[in-house]
Amino acid sequence: MNTHIELSIIVIVYKMRRQAYNTLYSLSTAYQRNTAANYEVIVVENHSDENLSADYINSLPGNFRYFLRDEPGVSPVPALNFAFAQCRGTMLGLLIDGARMLSPRVLEHALTLQRAFDHPLIVVPGYHLGAEQHDAANPARAATEQEELASLNWREDGYRLFTQACFSPGNSRGYFHPLMECNALFCTKKSFSEIGGADPRFDLAGGGSINLHIYRSLGMQPSNRLIVLPGEGNFHQYHGGVTTQASDNRQDKLQAFRAQLNNFWGGQYKALSREPLLFGNVGYSAQRFLQQSCNAGMERFARLSAEGKPAWPDDDACRQEGSGQRS
């Protein structure tokens, strides 16, 4: 086996055994196309009554490392920073939610872009499995989803997942709008270090809005090149997560998350608004999402043009900051 590690992928898991097994298989060399064994997957799990089997993880083809921890808090941030300290690659992949399966050429494209750019920030668009976003789903959705996945035979062709999916809330209008967050992103280890890793002050359940904070922090680094993979996806499996389940106090939780996040961004957080470079193949199954993105993007650009507003205002802010750093 090639022992040179170019890419380290972090997967954080808690009480989602079935979903995590699917996610990890989607990261294996048996599933990911056109990749050598030059990447590692670092799995960090907090103790629960639904822990993963170390034997299963060790049986997966590829380079998997598994760590089981006792975390006193309710946030995955300590586990994320612990995992980061274990990484051996120069490129980093982040899946803070271990219930997200990837399509088959994500790692091929990430490795290609790592070699092509000094500071790529690679976004894999997010989808929810099923016809509706999971915050509106009935808990019975979990059983239905298992049947749908079995019928798709996704392990043979992961692009079939697009046929049973909808855009996630973080990019619900497609990738020609500013994306609120990214649940599967890739950057250099240097970039992640420069933003201070995952901020431990995000101590609310599920990390609160740590995903949004990390994505915007990385995206506002002037040297990072934002790249979106329109033909690839990260697919959220229903598991009754903190924000992706219907509950009586869901809005109260989201309000607490927003309040905490806004405190880090001058009282008003906003989605990262930088123009993306699109990269990679877009197969038949993903083309309807590209079409939806184009239609929504054309409406947005026409509206902003009529109002005399820039389409990607954070590009100007990053250019100004970059010029200041060079002067």
Describe the protein.
The model has no long low-confidence stretch (mean pLDDT 93). The protein has an 8-stranded mixed beta sheet with strand order 3-2-1-4-9-6-10-12, sandwiched between helices. Helices cover 35% and strands 16% of the residues. It starts with 6 loop residues before the first strand and ends with a helix. It has 327 residues and is α/β, with parallel strands linked by helices. The protein has 10 helices and 12 strands. The chain has a single domain (7-326), classed as Spore Coat Polysaccharide Biosynthesis Protein SpsA, Chain A (Alpha-Beta Complex), CATH 3.90.550. It has helices at residues 17-26, 54-59, 77-86, 106-116, 141-152, 189-194, 210-219, 250-264, 287-307, 313-326, and strands spanning 7-13, 39-46, 64-69, 91-95, 100-102, 120-123, 126-129, 165-167, 185-188, 225-228, 234-236, 277-278.
